[in-house]
Specification:
Blueprint (H helix, E strand, L loop, with lengths): L1 H20 L5 H6 L6 H12 L2 H14 L5 H25 L4 H8 L2 H32 L5 H49 L3 H9 L14 H14 L4 H8 L4 H32 L9 H9 L2 H39 L4 H25 L3 H10 L3 H12 L5 H21 L5 H17 L6 H4 L5
Helix pairs in contact: 1-8, 1-14, 3-8, 3-11, 3-12, 3-14, 4-12, 5-10, 5-12, 6-7, 7-8, 7-14, 7-15, 7-16, 7-18, 8-12, 8-14, 8-15, 10-19, 14-15, 17-18, 17-19, 18-19
């Protein structure tokens, strides 16, 4: 029965994308939804972009295992991420009239950094998209008799067609539907679980039986490690094409700001439910070897059959709202900032055609990553190891200074990309993202300061 529901749900999503595709006339329509979206759709799209299946399954499992210290990113870190987006980022980026984040780099640093940033941002996002394709395929595999390989092929094919047709406008409209399904499902799970365990008083007693699980801090961490754990969701996730493209699609600067704040409140409210369930989890489903199975097992135990099917649909909604955002975002960077200027494409229909071909290519790459690994966790770890610390540092510098040093920014971005895997995987440092940001900033300052050195010193002469 589940797979019939899934097919119906996917058919509805494709129908929406096809309907939207008939209204796409130019590149701005395809990548920025015509810059005509209101508060409600932008809010839902921002929320749904970050509220993925890992938010529900990953954070509830981590909190089940470690208490609130396991859920700093979800929901608390990403809530702060939306707050920073609304306070400092959404307004200046919308006023800049950009199509992509790389446009910002071109204006503040130069065209060489614009091109480099595209290829710096691409690998991590493509691996992350592969993880989402893998997750989607495993849902199909679990609810049907087909093999995992065929399930992955079906998942990737649907994602490619879905993104190919509707662009960002189709994505945002679908996010409203997907976000609504997520809200309804998470709320129902919360109500049913609380009612069946004896109400809020019983839940409170379960939580207070182990008050140490309420701490957001882990006792075995140094201060610098704690800073590092918060930096990735709070700062690292702000400067991504997936997120910024939504604020750029707003019809005015007020909508961009308000939607960022609204999405943060929605994220905190809905993300707190998996966190709450994770806190009481050891009391109602004790002894799980794999904590990430907690929420699916909880849903299976407490939800009636038809609501469990709805839960499956909610997980698909969460996956789709994430993966199509990634594919469209990276396609926008490659198309708008590399292919169109390289081939000097002027015709708007040709721009849209090239954009759609890039979406297909990105989808195939994500599919190949999904096939290359047996576990979603391996792909997630690979995506995180491809560092974006340099992106964060350079973007903040560009927001502070109207015109930054191009070679300093290029050097900082390259160092930030390389440093993260070196610090984490080879040197085993406890705070790799923080150290990568520090290294990027240091390199920027050193390279940018060359213009202030004495002329003889710059020529290599002895002073």
């Amino acid at each position: 029965m589940s797979w019939v529901f899934i097919l119906l749900y996917l058919f509805i999503q494709l129908s929406i994308s096809y309907w939207v595709s008939l209204r796409i006339k130019n590149e701005k329509d395809y990548f920025l939804a015509g810059r005509n979206m209101g508060v409600l759709p932008i809010t839902f799209s921002l929320f749904a972009t970050w509220f993925g299946a890992e938010t529900c399954i990953g954070s509830s499992g981590a909190i089940y295992e470690m208490g609130l210290s396991g859920g700093r990113a979800d929901p608390f870190g990403y809530t702060l991420n939306f707050l920073i987006l609304g306070l400092f980022v959404a307004v200046p980026f919308w006023k800049g009239g950009y199509t992509t984040l790389a446009d910002f780099y071109r204006q503040h640093f130069g065209s060489r950094l614009e091109k480099l940033s595209v290829w710096i941002m691409l690998p991590s996002s493509m691996v992350w998209a592969g993880a989402q394709v893998r997750a989607f395929g495993e849902v199909i595999h679990a609810t049907s008799p087909i093999s995992i390989e065929l399930a992955l092929t079906i998942a990737a094919t649907f994602i490619i067609i879905y993104s190919f047709l509707g662009g960002l406008m189709g994505d945002i409209i679908s996010d409203v539907i997907q976000g609504t399904i997520l809200i309804v499902t998470i709320t129902l799970i919360f109500i049913l679980v609380v009612s069946q365990i004896g109400g809020f008083e019983a839940a409170y007693n379960m939580i207070m039986a182990e008050p140490e699980r309420l701490s957001l801090l882990r006792g075995d961490e140094h201060v610098i490690q704690r800073v590092d754990r918060w930096l990735i969701p709070v700062i690292g996730a702000v400067f991504t094409q997936e997120l910024i493209s939504r604020t750029l699609a707003a019809k005015n600067v007020s909508v961009a700001r308000k939607a960022s704040f609204s999405a943060g409140l929605m994220y905190l409210a809905l993300g707190s439910v998996p966190a709450f369930l994770g806190l009481i989890g050891p009391k109602i489903l004790p002894g799980l070897e794999n904590s990430e199975t907690f929420l699916p097992l909880l849903a299976e135990k407490f939800l009636p059959g038809y609501l469990y099917i709805l839960f499956t649909g909610a997980m698909i909604a969460a996956i789709l709202s994430t993966v199509d955002s990634i594919i469209l975002a990276q396609s926008a960077l490659v198309t708008h900032n590399f292919l169109i200027p390289f081939f000097k494409i002027q015709n708007e229909k040709r721009k849209v055609h090239v954009a759609r071909m890039t979406v297909v290519t990105a989808g195939i790459i994500a599919y190949l990553f999904a096939l290359s690994s047996d576990r979603i966790y391996d792909l997630v770890m690979m995506a995180e190891s491809l560092g974006t610390a340099g992106i964060v540092v350079v973007t903040i510098i560009g927001m502070i200074y109207k015109k930054g040093d191009e070679w300093g920014a290029i050097s900082a971005m390259i160092v930030g990309f390389i440093a993260m895997p070196v610090y984490r995987d080879y040197l085993n440092l406890g705070a790799p993202f923080f150290m990568s940001m520090a290294s990027s900033l240091l390199v920027y300052v050193l390279v940018a300061s060359r213009k202030y050195l004495p002329l003889k010193f710059k020529r290599g002469a002895v002073l």
